[in-house]
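Collaborator request, handled under Task 6.
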Amino acid sequence: MFVRHQTDKLMYPLLAAVLLMIASYRPKYHLRSDMPAGFFSASASDSSPKRGLEKKIAWAYWEAAQMNVQWKYPYGHPLPPDVPAEFSIDAQALGPSASDPATRTLYWRRLQQVWYLPETWKKDYGWDWSWVSDPIASAAQGMKDSWDRWFAMHGPR
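Structure tokens returned to the collaborator:
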């Protein structure tokens, strides 16, 4: 049988506060600021100026992924097969070949190759109260992410 104690008035709010803190302190994943080796691979036969330009183009596309792509397709979510509009760079600074559709597609394929690698992502913990706006959807997404993490055969671990 349940017996009420004087400490119940203190324990229930304390328990609720602890549960709120546990639910709100979550990991956040961000693309690392340093470009992964698999994202840029210049051949050794390239001349030095061409290799330098290719590296600048690769850095520009990596920064586009950091600034635009990772927020639309976060950690653990697959990238679409087609290049999205967000994945673009300023052609004026690097020349017309930098924004050429073939170059853009090449770096999109490279991003797809490194997207699931653990060394591509940085994990930080912080307070995230976004679940408060829609707790049912957030709980469902959390259960789906947990299911994928524990039982899926593909994706990041």
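The cover message to the collaborator said: "Residues 8-151 form one domain. The chain has a mean pLDDT of 83. Please let us know whether this matches your experimental observations."
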